[in-house]
Amino acid sequence: MKKVTKAFTLLLLLCVVLAGCAAKSNPPAASKGENNSDNAAAAQESAAPSSALTVAFSEGGTTLDPAEASDLTSDTFVVAAYDQLVTYGVKTVDGAEVANTDDIQPMLAESWEVSADNLTYTFKLREGVKFQSGNPLTADSVVYTFDRVKNSNSGSFLYGMADIKSVTAKDPSTVEIVLNKQNHMFMQIIALYNFSIVDEVAMQGKDANYLKTNTAGSGPFVLEKWDPASEAVLTANADYWQGAPSLSKVTLKFTKEASNRVLLLDKGDVDMAIEIPPKDVSSLEANKDLAVKSNASNRILYLALNNKVAPFDNVKVRQAIAYSIPYDQLINEVMYGQAKQMKSAVASNTPGYTDKGYTYEHNLDKAKQLLQEAGYADGFTFDLTLGSGFQDWEDDAVIIQAELAKIGVTMNINKVARAQFLEMQKEKNLTAYISKWTSFVNDPAYHLGFLMYGKGSSNYNNYSNAEVDKLWEQASAEPDAAVRTKLFEQAQEIITTEAPWSYLYEYNRIVGMKANLSGYVYYPDEIIRFYPLSKK
Description:
Blueprint lengths: L1 E4 L4 H9 L18 H10 L5 E6 L14 H10 L4 E8 L2 E11 L2 E6 L5 E6 L13 H12 L5 H7 L1 E8 L2 E6 L6 H5 L19 H4 L7 E7 L3 E6 L12 E6 L3 H10 L4 E3 L6 H5 L4 E16 L9 H10 L2 H8 L4 E3 L22 H10 L7 E7 L3 H15 L4 E7 L1 H9 L5 E7 L5 H8 L14 H11 L4 H18 L2 E14 L2 E2 L15 E2 L1
Parallel strand pairs: 2-11, 2-12, 15-16
Antiparallel strand pairs: 1-5, 3-4, 5-6, 6-8, 7-8, 9-10, 10-11, 12-18, 13-17, 13-18, 14-18, 19-20
Helix pairs in contact: 10-12, 16-17
């Protein structure tokens, strides 16, 4: 057996418990149990008033269920209300603290063993952990949680991607998870919030929808209030197993208009604001009381072309579109420099990324040549479907439309409501559309498996290449990281050459905050972990 054992030392545990202001590296969570009011009150009484945090959020969220959460606000509730078996480490990149997704750290599981064939993972649970209901964490909790994910509407796809065969409680503190085949992403997948461990005892007698509006976890914050139209309030769990949070309370103010979020932050009415528009970064940076965190993310934006619909079933036409796009103009005039040019279907900060095959500088002469070779010397007309809610998408579309007109291509922009767009996208019949994507698991297998694999659930523009599919399948099953990387590089080069998308840009994740706030860590899922945060 290959044994991996990682645990907090007794000294570190004592430091965290006794000195609540110490930095917390593991991202936690919390839950809403029946006996939490005393704990929350104690946390508030013991913490100074200045330890309360107010955050301007955009949307109010849709669910508290870890297995079903899929929007940023709902995900934030879950991460603040639950723990997972394992979590990611933290590293420093260009002076910023970011999650190290290759470094799997203990959370509710204090250690684990992996069989020689990499199919069986045996987790030893941390002793003394209690859910906020007061019920102890047991192996049955883990089995119950994984069964919920397996049978959920949203998380079930991740369960399948993890390729889990069975989850068994060997004894009250030991869980065995067996895979159908080797999966290098397994540990990264179960670190996701969807696999947050649920208190199965507290769930007895509850209906199937209980967790949509209630929580049952073991984390550092208790969700005391949730009104999707106005605000949510999280209070500290004084008995949290890693030590009470430094923040006594976190209030999320749901502020849909980005300009209002910026104004609230600039005036000092909130401590933090998310989804800051790129155009406002410089003005906020001029405020000495604020700090703006702008991290390179793996959130990408692309112009998708339906590979089964003429003329985009012709690779030269798709390449011509790619040569027509003024990338520098999009990044500088639309994104104010808060983005970088995208040169692969995979984001550049993903392990295994390559820009091989990328040749698409802005070149209208090259675009015209390719159109002529494809039999479209006189151009053509097509419809671009544009979902509402993102100003940069609209600005990008107008700029691209103007450039395409210069090569004889007419692009009609059809705007639809965001919800309608998402439904239309799933039907796979759109001729062209602009869309974004964020891979929570920072791995090419996850990213390409959704978007570019022939059977991928989010391959909405019908890209299909037998060689790419074969490379993805080989790489996904390959235990050797170096070999796996080469296979994924080959797949990326083919995809880039065939141009099923025109790559637009990779976003920066922009969060503004007061300068006295410390402990912020950027994660690929873009969820803010409140537990490590503290005020000076």
